[in-house]
Specification:
It is built from four helices and five strands; from the N terminus they run βααβββαβα. It is an alpha+beta fold. A five-stranded mixed β-sheet has the order 1-2-3-4-5. Helix 3 links the parallel strand 4 and strand 5.
Length: about 150
């Protein structure tokens, strides 16, 4: 089951997010404060972030975070699937497909594009995304962290 995060999900979200940021799916861990700030933003409003909990047999086993931005290229609002994480033992049980079905059936009509990142080595996720209609984007991404000027 997929559902929106609630205030009482804070501890499970922090646990799952810490597991995600300790995995090979990300470049480096982040401070716990970032998890707390993200959760607070999810609870404050759905303007910037929305959070979802994945449950299997009534147990929380994963989460996703999405954010919205206007894309001139896409001609409307783009939903960025910022993070998806499912505990290893619950992968390949249909939760990823269920999440994308949930999104597609509950999306605001102003959303015209879904976008996500995936590690090139994560073949299982790539196959899932391709089966759902995602295709590669020919752009490379670059970042600059404003607070410290780094290019992590």
């Amino acid at each position: 089951m997929i559902r929106k995060m609630k205030k009482e999900d804070a501890d499970i979200f922090y646990y799952l997010a810490e597991q995600f940021y300790a995995s090979d799916a990300v470049l480096h861990p982040i401070p716990k404060k970032h998890h707390i700030d993200a959760f607070n933003e999810i609870m404050r409003s759905s303007v910037y972030l929305e959070g979802f909990i994945f449950e299997y047999n009534d147990q929380p086993v994963g989460y996703a975070i999405t954010s919205k931005m206007y894309s001139q290229e896409a001609g409307g609002i783009m939903l960025w699937i910022d993070e998806i994480y499912i505990l290893e033992e619950y992968r390949s049980k249909g939760l990823g497909k269920e999440f994308f079905h949930y999104l597609k059936t509950t999306l605001d009509s102003s959303i015209v594009r879904l976008r996500l990142e995936v590690e090139k080595e994560n073949e299982r996720a790539i196959e899932l995304y391709k089966s759902l209609g995602f295709g590669p984007l020919a752009y490379d991404q670059m970042i600059l962290d404003i607070k410290d000027g780094s290019r992590k």
